[in-house]
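Render this sequence as a predicted structure.
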Amino acid sequence: MADDKEREGTELVVAEFHKKIKDAFEVFDHEANNTVDVREIGTIIRSLGCCPSEGELHDLIVEVEEEEPTGYIRFEKFLPVMTKVLLEKRYRPIPEDILLRAFEVLDPSKRGFLTKEELIKYMTEEGEPFSQEEMEEMLSAAIDPESNSIRYKDYIAMMVVDDG
């Protein structure tokens, strides 16, 4: 009996995920033919609350692409892969406290902010570097125009996904 209830619960969760995935996919299905441009996949995945790295995103795209890539992703190939990602809770956003510690490492004097120049240096020269477009997008949201710096506690509070 408990197994039936559990299976019913899982089926409800899967049905809910299928609806969310379909809704997100349809926003970018401009031809209404159950395909989207491969370049939109990252946006679709992020709209579903996932935060894959560029490498993880590339791996996901390879998984859902046709054997002979066409530049488009079909819904019927995307749905099972994305359902599995959501069920496994893969690519979850980084928790607020970990983001704060990361910024604090970059701010050894504990000022509570980074200058625009420091931020650009860290984000383009370390780890998985940001592209020019990603950097401009981040700066537009993160930088306080008056001080030309990022008050990282405010920025973290603004960008953290509420998992409620």
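Summary. DSSP finds eight helices and four strands in the chain. The chain has a mean pLDDT of 89.
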